[in-house]
Here is the input.
Amino acid sequence: MHHDFIDRYSRLESPIHRMPVGMKAAVTLAVVFTVVLAPPSWILFYVAAAIFLMIIAVLSRIPAGFLIRRIAFFELFVLVIALLALAQPGGGARFGAIILKSTLSLLTVLLLANTTPFNRIIGFLGRLHVPSAMITILALMYRYIFVLIDEAGRIQRARESRTFVRQRTRRWIMLASVLGRLFVRSTERAERIYDAMCARGWRQ
Amino acid sequence: MHIPDGFLDTKTIVATSAFSAAGVLRALRNVTRRITPRYIPLMGLAAAFIFVAQMLNFPVAGGTSGHVIGGVLVSILLGPSAGIVVMTVVLVVQCFLFADGGVLSLGANVFNMGIVAVVCGYYFYRIFTSVSIGMMGRLAVVAAASWISTVIASICCTGELAWSGTIGWSNAFPAMTGIHMIIGIGEAIITTLILAAIYRTRPALLSGPESAREGRAWNVVSEVLPFGILITLGLALFVTPFVTVWPDGLERVAAEFGFSAKSKTAASSHSPLAGYQIPGIGSVPVAMAIAAVIGATLVFLTVFLLGRALVSRSKDVSS
Here is the structure.
C-alpha cells in the first residue's frame, strides 16, 4: 500500500530537492532562528523572509494548495494559544507578532520536510554526532511506520468483519483491543528484526 | 500540547533544550549500557507503534475525536528510560516530518511530553501498584497515572509559555489545565483499555520476566535521582514563580483575620527560607526560584525516601 500522505512531496524533482541536506538544514535553522528572535518591529525583515520562502516554495514545485492546507491545519492550534495571549494587557501587538512568527517558521519547516526525504535528515543528524543508538531507533521507526499502518489496517479490518458495532463505548473497546494487538505484534516483530540484524553482523 | 515556534523566548528555549538534552542523553545511556541491545529495535518499533496509535482516532462526543498520547503506556511497558527515548523519537519525527511542534521549541516539547509526562506517570504507577490489589487495582492506578501525567505536562507547558511572557499565567492556567483535565480523562480511559487488552492477550508483557528484568528494581542512581532532579528543577523554574505570586490558603486566612501582623514576629519569619526569599539575593523572582528549587528538592527527597520505605516493606510482605 502507498502511504504517501506522510512525506508525499519529499521525492519530487526540483533544484531545491537536489540541494545538499546540510545546506537546507542550515538555512532552515537560520531562518527559524531569526524569525523567532527578531523584534516584531522589523517589518521589512519579515516581508523579506516571507518573499524568500515563497520563492523557495515556487522553485520546489510543491503544490501551493497542499502547503496552504497544512498551514491552515496547524494555524488552529496557534490561534488557540495566541487567543490566550490576546487576553493580556497589550496583547494586540503580541497576538500579531506570534501569528506572524509561527506561520513563517511553520512554512520554513514544511518546506524542509517536503523537499528532503527523511532518511537524508537522519543521515545529517548522524553527521552531527547525535548518538548512534538514537539514529538507529529513528531509522527503524521511520522504516516501520508504514508497515505498522498496514498491520493496524489489517487487524482493524479483521475485527470489523467479525463484529459490527456502532455504539461509542464498544468502538472504544474495539479500537483499544486493536492497538493492544498491534503492540503485541510490534514486540514480536522487534524480536525478529533483532535476530535478522544480528545475523547480518549488526553490533551496537 | 505541541508548542509551535514563535511562542517561546530565548531564555526558555535555552533552558528547556538544556534540560531535555540532559534527560534524553541520560535515558539513552541507561538504555544502551544497562539493558540488552535487544531493546534497540524494540524501541524503534514502539516509537512507530505510538506514532500509528496517535493516528487512530477515537470518537468523542459531538463529532470531535481524540487519540492516545502514549507516554504512560510506553513507560509502563518498557520502563522510564526507554519511554523517554521512544517519546523523544516520536516528537522528533513529528517535528521534522509534519512540522508538528516547532524546531526551536522541540526542547520544550520533549521536556513536557517526553520527560515530565513519562517519568511522573511511571513513578506514580510504580509507587501505587506496589500497594494496589489485583489487576483491577492496577488498572485503576494506570488510569490515575495517565490523567496525572497529562495534567502535569500541560501545567509545565503553561509555565514555559508564561515564563516567555507569551501568555498571562492567571488566565492561561485555568484554561490550559481545565482543557487538559478533560483530555486526561480520555487518555486515562484509552491507556487503561489498551493495557487491559495487552494483559488479556499477553499478560507476560505486564507482569512476567520481561518487565521483571527492567521494572522490578528501582534504579536509584541511574533513573530516579537524575530524572527526579531534572523534573524538580524544571517545575521549580517554570511553574513555581507563578504559583507563589498568589497568597496561599493560610496566608489569605491570616490576612483576613488580621493575625498576619502578629505572625511577622513569630518564629517562622526566622526560618531559613521565610517567605520563600533568601537574604542577600536582591531580585525577588530569582530568590523565589532558588528558594523553590531548595524547597522542592527537600520535598522530593522526603517523598523519595518515603516511597522507598513503602515499596521495600510491601516487597518483604509479598516475598
Summary: Chain A touches chain B through 73 residues (CB under 8 Å). Chain A has eight helices and no strands. The helical segments of chain A are 15-18, 21-37, 43-59, 64-86, 91-115, 118-127, 132-162, 168-199.
